[in-house]
């Protein structure tokens, strides 16, 4: 809370305590509201195509591109058809925190911490294309990032942030 005497104009997210639009007149209390978090997720495969029995590695990066920290992040993947999920790891940087550092199968991690301006979680998920996979079909892994922080958005739309990575089956 800031008390000012005179006229105060400010950036987006600053309002007069009375709820009136800026500029506030004297004396006025001004409330600074933090901008809501802006999250992003990227998901890539290590190769564009692979044969049945081949190992494929997906890299999923969850990040916070705002000035407001997120402490309730949730990172989730699906289970693609014709693909057996294997081991995964999580590495944090920029002050972020992985709920767990390793696991097997589908990723479903709650409680991820993504600090403001640059905290990232990098998941590396390995798996194998099933022997029943048909030629020229796509193995698609969907990754999502959730948060219930007030006003949270994604760089490209609404929560959940989502990104698909695909590998085409070749024989």
Give a quick set of tags describing it.
about 0% helix; about 170 residues
Describe the fold and architecture.
- This protein has strands at residues 2-4, 14-16, 28-32, 38-45, 49-50, 55-64, 70-77, 83-93, 102-104, 108-114, 120-129, 138-146, 153-154, 161-169.
- It has 171 residues and is mostly beta strands.
- Strand 8 and strand 9 (102-104) form a beta hairpin.
- Strands 9-8-11-6-4-13 form a 6-stranded mixed β-sheet, with no helix packed on it. Strands 5-14-12-7-10 form a 5-stranded mixed β-sheet, with no helix packed on it. It has a 3-stranded antiparallel β-sheet with strand order 1-3-2, with no helix packed on it.
- 0% of the residues lie in helices and 53% in strands.
Model regions low in confidence, pLDDT < 50 over at least 5 residues: 4-8
Radius of gyration (CA) equals 22 Å
* Sheet with most strands: strand arrangement: 9-8-11-6-4-13
Q: What's the main sheet like?
A: 6 strands, mixed
Helix coverage percent: under 10%
Number of helices: 0
How confident is the prediction overall: mean pLDDT?
A: 87
Could you tell me the number of beta strands? 14
Shape: elongated
N→C terminal distance: 65 Å
> Which structural category do the helix and sheet elements fall into?
mainly beta
Q: Report the portion of residues in β strands.
A: over 45%
Q: What order do the SSEs take from the amino end to the carboxyl end, as H and E?
A: EEEEEEEEEEEEEE
């Amino acid at each position: 809370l800031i008390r000012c005497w005179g006229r105060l104009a400010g950036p987006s997210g600053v309002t007069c305590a009375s709820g009136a639009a800026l500029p506030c007149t004297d004396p006025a209390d001004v409330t600074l509201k933090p901008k809501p978090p802006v999250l992003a997720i990227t998901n890539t495969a290590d190769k564009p195509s692979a044969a049945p029995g081949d190992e494929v590695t997906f890299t999923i990066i969850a990040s916070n591109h705002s000035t407001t920290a997120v402490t309730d992040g949730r990172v989730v993947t699906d289970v693609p058809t014709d693909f057996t999920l294997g081991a995964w790891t999580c590495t944090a940087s920029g002050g972020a925190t992985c709920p767990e550092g390793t696991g097997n199968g589908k990723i479903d991690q709650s409680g991820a911490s993504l600090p403001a301006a640059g905290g990232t979680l990098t998941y590396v998920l390995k798996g194998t294309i099933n022997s029943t996979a048909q030629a020229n079909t796509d193995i698609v892994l969907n990754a999502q990032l959730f948060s219930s922080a007030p006003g949270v958005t994604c760089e490209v739309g609404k929560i959940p942030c989502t990104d698909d990575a695909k590998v085409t089956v070749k024989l």
